[in-house]
Amino acid sequence: MSALALSVLDLAPVQADATATEALAATTRFAQTVERFDFLRFWVAEHHNMPGIASSSPPVVLAHLASATKKIRVGSGGVMLPNHAPLVVAEQFGTLESLYPGRIDLGLGRAPGTDPVTARALRRGARGAGGDEFPQELTELISYFRGTADTVASPGYGAEPEIFLLGSSGYSAQVAAILGLGFAFAHHFSPDNTHAALKLYRDNFRPSAELSEPYVIVAVSAITAETDAAADELAKPRDLAMANLRSGRPQALATPAQAASFGATPEERAFSAHRKAGQLQGSPQTVRAQAADLLATTKANELMINTMIYNIDDRIHSLELTRDAVLAAADPTA
């Protein structure tokens, strides 16, 4: 396998005792640190009606992050295409690519990234909310970048960012394969589907002008600390956030004290344990072994690390430890 690339997926987490302003400032600092760590990309994700996430508008956040960094690629992980008119997305990312040539990624998903009521509000109606029109809307979007549409996207035409499809099942894997696009799989929240989706993508891949062979990004949750027990403590606010989201009551990221005092039900504990399986969590030695297994089974070209930790200093330290452990797993002889 060629040298492994490392990237970051960030959700601009909003702390229970902080504001969106503080969350976005922390994400900016995080992006600058990730660039110093020499990672390839820094992506933010579109979510709506979620008080704990401040990245609801990726194009706006990316414009700021690109201006605050110098060379790292910045992108969406992703823009949820059912929420937007394709021409608007083409103009937004065409503008970003024109401002920061060669540094913009457009990761696209077919889920709305929110609940049905909010999805309808975003699109002012039911059209597109279920993702059924995703292939047609994707084709339309690409046509604006390439100048084959009846309408000219300006900026947009001739300013195509690097496009990836995001997925948590086999659907987007097959679309990405047919179109010859890169594929980013959400292993961090759909680990049961990872291997089947990657096989579909690789088996059906058709070379394109963009890619001569498949390119796989695997997004993984990672929390690394000096000991396994310390990593488990850092993970508690994230685990509580996922339990709240699953139960339909999304909230800001709980403080470590709030998370530690939360009385999880047996079902919630089982859910957290299942989500932890296959992810990266523990001491550097533990994470190195976990990463070696993940890389061996997925043959990923790139790992995209999501580190949902309450304190930004802890988040940065965890990422540094994770980077060293993953790179050691990728090249044991180094």
Major sheet: order of its strands? 1-2-3-4-5-6-7-9
Return the CATH class: Alpha Beta
Number of H- or I-type helical stretches: 12
Strand content: 15-25%
Helix-strand category: alpha/beta
Note poorly predicted spans: none
Task: Work out the number of β strands.
Answer: 9
- Count of domains: 1
- Termini separation comes to 15 Å
Instruction: Note the run of SSEs as H and E.
Output: EHEHEHEHHEHEHEHHHEHEH
CATH architecture, by name, is Alpha-Beta Barrel
Largest sheet: 8 strands, parallel, barrel
Helix content: 40-55%
Radius of gyration: 19 Å
Shape summary: globular
Quote the CATH topology: TIM Barrel
Mean pLDDT: 92
CATH H level, superfamily name: Luciferase-like domain
Keywords: Monooxygenase, Oxidoreductase
Organism: Nocardia camponoti
Protein name: FMN-linked alkanal monooxygenase
InterPro entries: Bact_Lucif_Oxidored (IPR050766), CmoO-like (IPR019949), Luciferase-like_dom (IPR011251), Luciferase-like_sf (IPR036661)
SSE order and pairing:
Layout: E1 5-10, H1 20-36, E2 41-44, H2 58-68, E3 73-80, H3 86-99, E4 104-109, H4 116-123, H5 134-146, E5 162-167, H6 170-179, E6 182-185, H7 194-204, E7 216-224, H8 228-246, H9 256-260, H10 266-276, E8 280-282, H11 284-298, E9 302-306, H12 312-330
Parallel strand pairs: 1-2, 1-9, 2-3, 3-4, 4-5, 5-6, 6-7, 7-8, 7-9
